[in-house]
Amino acid sequence: MEDKTYKVLWIDDDESIHEAYQQLADLRGIDLVTFTNWEDAKPVFEADFDEWTAVILDAYCQLTPRPVLDQNFLNEVLNELKTKFAERRKLIPWYVLSAGTMSNFNGVINSINLRDRRELEQDWGKLVHLKDDIETGSLFDCICDVGERKEINTVLYRHKDVFKYVGANAIFGADARRILLESLSALYYPEETSGISYPNPLGQILEIVLRSMIEKGLLPQECLDGNGNPIVKNSCELLLGKEVLFSKSIIKLSSPYSSYYSFKLIPQIELMPQNMLSNKDFRNLGSHPNADKEIFVVSSETEEMFYSYLMQLCQIVKDMGMLIETHPDVEENKQNIKRVEFDGNSFLLEQDADGKTLHCGPIKVVSNKKNNINYKDLVGETVQIDRVKINDPTQIERYGFYTNSIRKVNT
């Protein structure tokens, strides 16, 4: 028998089974602290809150020492547990161990197996276990597993609004969840963490978010490079409502998204990726999903910077998850991507009211001293643009792009 490692609160009115299950639990290093009712268990649970690895509840049990079974037992106890979780800002995994014979068993389980518990199944294991040796073994497997990773439950609670968007059945997938859990656990419990099992956790999270934005039509396909990886700089500029030059087009996100992005994400999106990826410790080497796996160790020289970026990424995950959740129609989202294509296309050369500035749509036309062509002679003509450049930020005025190479289209 192993030394007791995992302390578990178990409430079941049938005292005759307590000893038998404790013998099974002993083999796993699990100490079952048993009660027949919630009233007696509650003060012990609260007093030893930080020591519990898990809570096991019978489905049909006693709320008080009086031998009266209550069909509302689970709902009543869980309401009080969740209140205590909120007060202490920490979750403790909870399970139902039952014979499954009570009337309306499935209805009772459905009433407590809400979204928050279903999302945690990937971290804690399934909710309901039946009272036979095989299923009990499965429950004890779950408890041993979460016991080895006990610290993650604090992380899961403190960042519950972030983790609702990352997971096997969530918007950003299981990889993002694993990376965030490891990275945040390293922040909250550095003494328990030897490293993070990803070569660039920050880059990987950011790329997962941007890739999802592209898949949902909230960013254009042009934001993927030739290898199918997000182009971080262009993606972030679009999210800020800026016009971005690609090889054959100029793209801008129109409202309602651009105003949402600009208002919510300027502090996170505008500076964080550039600073993060320009730092030799955090640059996007190894940020792609197929990157070689190697341990990332947060050094003492960079830990403050690393964790500040990690917190900003949590905000991005939450905001972008909310945006995708509230705008699920991919085709409708794509309608808000405004694209001006110029490669090989024809434009009408126009002149501004000042009588000086020439432009083709959103592109300013400037003189080219090398060819000695006076472009003013072509005003009103249909022209083609050979190349476009981003305008000097100090000279942008109305036009974010310019060209000095146009030619008349023969008609």
Describe the structure.
It is built from 15 helices and 18 strands. With 411 residues, the chain is α/β, with parallel strands linked by helices.
Task: Please tag this protein with its features.
411 residues; alpha/beta; five-stranded parallel sheet; five-stranded mixed sheet; 15 helices; 41% helix; 16% strand
Quick summary of this structure?
The chain has 411 residues and is an alpha/beta fold. The protein has 15 helices and 18 strands. It starts with 5 loop residues before the first strand and ends with a strand.
Integer average pLDDT: 82
Please give the count of helices: 15
Roughly how much helix do the residues carry, as a percent range?
40-55%
* CA-based gyration radius: 29 Å
Cα(first) to Cα(last) distance is 92 Å
Outline the biggest β-sheet: 5 strands, parallel
Low-confidence stretches: 261-270, 277-287
Shape designation: elongated
How much of the sequence is in beta strands?
15-25%
Assembly of the depicted chains: single chain
Number of strands: 18
Biggest sheet: strand arrangement: 2-1-3-6-7
Structural class, from secondary structure content?
alpha/beta
